[in-house]
Here is the input.
Amino acid sequence: MVTLANAELSVQLLDPTADRDRLGSRYCWGGYIWQVFDAAGHPLVTGPEWPHPTPRPFNGQGLPESFRFRRRSGEALTWNGREGVHLGGGRIALDAQGEVVVVEPCHWTVERTADSITYRTDQRTLGYDTTLVREIRLTGRTLHSVSRLTHRAAQPLSLEWFPHPFFALTDRLIEVEVPPACRLAENPGFSLEGRRLASRKRFDGEQDGHMDFLLLPPGVPVRARLSHPRLQYVDFSTSYAPSECVIWGNGNTFSIEPYLAAVLAPGETKEWSVTTAFGPVRAS
Here is the structure.
């Protein structure tokens, strides 16, 4: 793993080559934030299988981000038959069991400064021609994740991208302050009263959980303040207004997933970012 650290936080990122056993066909390989520790060495983010030390790549942990190769409906994005492109991962195909696997990983170049790590990959395969740059920057107690995608092929590129952060629970519960005027359908997992999104129940382990859709007002970026068992709060925000916003949780973690949907014209570059600020440690 690669570490980015200052006096406040230490951030572990997966190495796209050395940590390949932790990677798969779901999350972007470059800039994958695996864990964040405070100055006392306490882990601050979790995952669906937490605290298992080697979770399955599909589940992962930390603050991963992902390009979809299919829409949730099953419609292809960067997938065609038995082959496709996992942007930020490589060329993908179906194995003998019908599972999606990375058969030709993309190559990353990595540049470091005192407070940032930048990953770059060029993917030219199956008619796609893209450059993806991922910059992870640490400032004080705040992590900035910036993505920049350039599309050069002759046809427009439809994409869906989303962060999949795994936030820690307090006694298996979460509370989140969300933007005003959000809506949430009646469901068994979460409640929404005013700006307060909260767990309705304590889920039991990995298999017990619930997924739903938080409906934000049109054109509103995500600004969320989450509870945390060790910190006073965690602030999570996006530079963009999401096309939809999934919320999900089980007995080990909670995730808010604001999707970015876009169509890139030939020659177009699009940039967006996610920011996660870890608040002060709670008074003992």
In short: The longest strand covers residues 128-139. The chain has one domain: 2-278. The two ends are 32 Å apart (CA to CA).
